[in-house]
Amino acid sequence: MRVAFYAPLKSPNHPVPSGDRLMARLLMRALELAGHSVEIVSEFRSFAATPQEATARRSAGEAVLTRLRQNWTSKPHPDLWFCYHPYYKSPDIFGPVLCREFSIPYVTAEASYSEKRDATEWGQQQRLVIDGVRQAAVNIVFTARDRAGLAQAIPTGSFAALKPFIDTTLFETAPPEAKPQRLITVAMMRAGDKMQSYTMLAEALRLIADRRWTLAIAGDGPMRIDVERLFGSFEPGHIEWLGELGAGEIAHELGRSGIYVWPGCGEAYGLAYLEAQAAGLPVIALKTAGVPEVVTDGITGYLTAPGDIAAFAAAVAALLDDPLERSAMGATARHFVLEERSLKVAAKALDDILQTYVRRKE
After folding, report:
1. Would 2-165+342-361 and 169-340 be classified into the same CATH topology?
2. Which residues is 218 bridged to in the sheet?
3. 303: which strand partners?
4. Which CATH architecture has domain 2-165+342-361?
5. 117, 216, 222, 312: which could join 240 in a potential S-S bond, CB 3.0 to 4.6 Å?
6. In this model, does residue 224 exceed pLDDT 50?
């Protein structure tokens, strides 16, 4: 099929790296690997920080909608509109309209719904998302939490599960010899959930400062000075600042490490957890949000209770103190990602979903 791909929050071509951009690119590659032709139909970003700004963004989008409509009238239109990650701050203001007018299927992936927004100034934005989910031939969900939220709002909606996945190419060769005591984390340095995770990580490591370990931190962002301040009290040599790295560099640094540590406050799921496991690292994280969708507690890592800093520290210490358990968990984690969460596996699963929910409606 000819697929019109649209990511209203952040285009796959956006210059700033993030999990959203990475997943958008992965979905495009999965569609192409399955034999579909994929085109980014618009770079327009509908994201609005405030309800007032949202009104302005919808108005600005009218010209884009008109242009798309004209193009599709004069040229062959796509067979399918695929929208990645519509939510109340960045709804899809084009796809549902054009799909109705041109009688083509509408599909969403990682749509989300927040009931508490209905009675706020965001209500109109959220209704756009809900209307799109209701119209969709299928809504592809990555986590049980997202599916439950959408199904509660739209019991008659059509839903199918696709497990979070990564391109495992960089991890398929045997990783270099790991340094068991080297902890590592990969995360952007920005306010909100990321900063909360950095804060918890620093506090947890202070509880086990007497043990033999180092922490490599890969990432950068507007809160870098604040993050450096959080870890400033550790003795010299404990913290290694790697800065922002490319995909190949991240894979290399993961392979040189022993344990991946990142609380994951508010994580939708966290592709970095899958990358770490693909490199043969067990993960220490919180049992919260979508993290259990990518880390199996007690099997590929340890998931501790949200907010329990002592438990998080104890989990890290347990693997530092037990190299055999660390090695066994790491091997299991690597097998899990390479065999179950690869781009190849996802491409087949995604195509099966489209064949089931879209082809049969033609």
Report:
1. yes
2. 186, 243
3. 285
4. 3-Layer(aba) Sandwich (3.40)
5. 216
6. yes
DSSP conformational letter for 76: P
CA distances from 322 to 29, 162, 258, 329 (A): 39, 34, 12, 11
Cβ atoms of 44 and 64 within 8 Å: the answer is yes
The CATH number for 169-340, chosen from 1.20.1530.20, 3.40.50.2000, 3.50.50.60, 1.10.3720.10, is: 3.40.50.2000
Angle at 275 between CA 179 and CA 198, to 5 degrees: 75
Write out the DSSP string of 8-53: SSS-TT-SS--HHHHHHHHHHHHHHHTT-EEEE--------SSHHH
Read off the pLDDT band of 362 (50, 70, 90): very low
Reported as a single tens digit per residue, the pLDDT across 195-209 is 999 999 999 999 999
SS3 109: strand
Per DSSP, the three-state class of 285 is strand
Q: Which amino acid is at 275?
A: E
Instruction: Give this prediction's pTM.
Output: 0.91
Contact 107, 83 (CB under 8 A): yes
| Secondary structure letter of residue 91 according to DSSP | -
Residue 86 has phi, psi (to 5 degrees) of -80, 135
Tens-digit pLDDT profile for residues 280-322: 999 999 999 889 999 999 999 999 999 999 999 999 999 999 9
Domain ranges across the chain: 2-165+342-361, 169-340
Angle at 39 between CA 37 and CA 44, to 5 degrees: 160
- Residue 180 parent element (H or E): none
Residue matched to tokens 């579909």 = 36
